[in-house]
# Entry
Amino acid sequence: MDAAAIIAAMGARARTAARELAVCSTEAKRAGLRAAAAAIRNDVANITTANEADVATATSLNDALIDRLRLDTDRIEAMAAGVDAVAALDDPVGQVIDTRTPANGIALSRVRVPLGVIGMIYESRPNVTADAAALAVMSGNAIILRGGSEASRSNAAIHAAFVRGLTETGISADAAQRVETADRAAVGAMLTANGLIDVIIPRGGKGLVARVQTEARVPVLAHLDGNNHLYVHAAADPVMAQAIAVNAKLRRTGVCGSLETLLIDRAYPAALALVAALLGAGAILRGDTAAQALDPRVGLASDSDWDSEFLAPDLAVAVVDDVDAALQHIARHGSGHTDAIVTEDRAVAEAFLARVDSAIVLHNASTQFADGGEFGLGAEIGIATGRLHARGPVALEGLTTYKWIGRGSGQVRL
Amino acid sequence: MDAAAIIAAMGARARTAARELAVCSTEAKRAGLRAAAAAIRNDVANITTANEADVATATSLNDALIDRLRLDTDRIEAMAAGVDAVAALDDPVGQVIDTRTPANGIALSRVRVPLGVIGMIYESRPNVTADAAALAVMSGNAIILRGGSEASRSNAAIHAAFVRGLTETGISADAAQRVETADRAAVGAMLTANGLIDVIIPRGGKGLVARVQTEARVPVLAHLDGNNHLYVHAAADPVMAQAIAVNAKLRRTGVCGSLETLLIDRAYPAALALVAALLGAGAILRGDTAAQALDPRVGLASDSDWDSEFLAPDLAVAVVDDVDAALQHIARHGSGHTDAIVTEDRAVAEAFLARVDSAIVLHNASTQFADGGEFGLGAEIGIATGRLHARGPVALEGLTTYKWIGRGSGQVRL
# Structure
C-alpha cells in the first residue's frame, strides 16, 4: 500500500475507535491508561533494548539530540508515571460549558466532546509516544502517532506496551495507532487527510514546522517559535530582575520558554549589574549600542538577533525608552509565545499584561514557567502559538471541542 | 498595486487598528456601533440607489439570488437595528475564563482577547457588510471585508456609512476596511495572508467554500454543508413528529438548518400520516424501498440523495431499524451541522444526543432553530461546521481567543 492508502485505512479505524472513546466512561479510560502505564513498566527491558539500538544507529545526531533520544530506567519510569498522572486528571468530556434557555424554550447546553482523531507528528523524544497517546485517550480522542525515524524502535516498543495495556481493559487498539512505514510520504498523507484526521499536532524542529505550514490541509495546532522577551522596567526590584533574567535565559536554554531578548528600561538604575550577572552566569549577550555601552563584553546585535529563537546561551539586549517602546519592540519582533515584565509599579504591569498580545504574559516571574505542568494542567501535548482554538499550554481541555445540545418539547420555528 | 500588495497594505493597517481595538473600552465600542447604525439610517437613500444599480446589472442571477441582493427601506432599517443589537451585547473581551494558582504561586488567569484581524469573504447579501463589521468591532477585532462583485455598489455604500459613524466616535476607519478591487486575486491574497489575517470566515456557495478549502493558508472558520437529519423514533408523539418534520423541511428550504434527510423508525406507527403530511405540504420525497412502500408518491432515492444539501423542497427518506441504525446513517452521511430526534423515550433521546457528533443535536425541536439569534447569542457571523475553535453558531465569543496572564512575586523556576 502507498502512504495515502495506509493513512486512509488507519484513519477509518481511528474514526470507529474515536466514536466509541467519545462515549467511554471516565473510569474505563482511567483503567485503560493505568494498564498502559503498568505495561510500560513491565516492558522496561524491551524498551531499553530498542532504545539502545536507536541510539547506536543515530550517529548523525548531535549530543543534545542524542540526549533527547536516550531512555533509561528512570526516564521510562517517569514516562509510565506520566501516563498514570494523566489518568488522574479531571475528564473534560461531558463537562457543560454553559446552559441557556432562549425565548423559544429549548433548553440549550454546550457540552465538551472530543476533537475526534488527532494526528501527532513528532521527532526525537520517544516519551512523546506515551504522553500524547495518554492525553488523547483521556480526552476521548483516537490518535495516529508518527514519530521520527531516529526513534522508531523505541517508539514501536513503547507503543506496543501502551496498546497491550489499553486492550487488556477493552479499549480498542485503534484508539492509539502508530504509523509504521518509514516512508516520509506518510507525513504528507497525514497533513492532507481531511475528514480522516481532525487536527494535526506537530512537535519538532523548524523543518517539520515549515513542512506542516506549507502542506497541511487538516487544521493544525502548531507550536512555533518562542522568541520570548523580558522587559525590566525602571521600577523593577534589582534583586528580582537579576534572578528572573538569569533563570529565564539560563535554567535550560533549549526549552521553548527560554528568554531570547532582554529589554532594559533606560531609567532602570541597576542595568550594569544585571548585564554583569547574565554574563557571569554564562550568557552570551549581543545588543544595541546602548546595551553595548553597559559592558564591553556585550557584542553588537545583528538585525536577525531580534527575531531569533536561539535555544542557546545567546541573548539579544536592547535598551528601551519606556513601556511603550518595550511594547512596540515586542509587537514587532515577538512570536506570541511568552513575554514578561519585572516591575514594582502595578499600573505599568497591568498595562503590559493587557497590551502584550502573546499566549502567555507574566509579571514578576520567569518565562521558563511556560509549561502545562507548571500551569497546573497536569501535562501538555504542546504549547499552541496560533490564535484559534487553544493558546498556550494544551492539555486535556485543548483536545476537546463542544457541541450544542438542545432539549425541546415540540418546538417549531415561526 | 497588485492584489497581494493591496491586501498586505490593508493588513498592516488592520493590525494597528486591531491593537487599539483590543484595549478599547466596551462603552467606546458601543458608541462607535451606535453611530454606525445611525449613519446607515441616515444614508438610506444612498444605499437604496446603490442597491438598485446592483440589482439592475445583476441580470445573470436567479430570482432567489436577486432577492438576497435586494435592499429596501425595511431591510436597511433591519440592518441598522442589527448593528444596534450587537452594540447591546455583552462584551466578551476581558472576561476571565478561569483562574488558578498552582504550586509555584503564580496567580494565573485565562482572559478573553480578540482574535486580531478577521478576513470576511462573502457573496450576495449586502447586509453581511454591516453584520460582520459590527460583530468584529464589538469583539475588538479589525475586519477586512470582501463582498461579492454583484453587490459591490451596495456594499460600498453600507461600508461608507458604517465607517463614517465609527470614525465620528474616534475609532479608526482601519478597523473595518473593504477590499475595493474587483480583482478575484484579492480573495487568493486574503486566503494566503499569514501573519496579516488571523482567521478567514467564508460565507457563500459551494464554489467559494471549495476555493477556500483548497487555497487557504490562514486558519478558516468554515460554514460547510448542512445535510441535516431528523430521526422519528418509534416512541415519537405523532402530532409533534409531523409538525417538526414539516417545519424542519419547509419553513424555509434555503437556510442551512433545513432538513435534508428524514429517518423513520420501522416501528413508528404513524409513518403513513407523516409522509402524507410532508407530501401534502409540498415536499418532494425520494426514499429507499421501505419508504417508497409507504406512499406511491415517494420516488426512488439515488445514492447521492443521502449526501445532498438540497436547499429545496426535496427530502431523502429512509426507514431504519432502530436508533443504532439511525446513528450509523447519520455518522456515514451527516455533515456535522444539525441533527434531531423526536421521541417521548428519554433514554433513547439521551443516547442520540450523546452519540450524534454534530455541532447541534436537538431533541423534540425543529432543525430550523440552528441560528445564533434563536440560540440567544444576539447575532451570528456564521455557523461553524469544523471542529476546532468554535462549533455551531458563532457570535462574539467565537471571535475571541484567550491569553494566559500570570501575576507573580519574583518566581524563578527550579
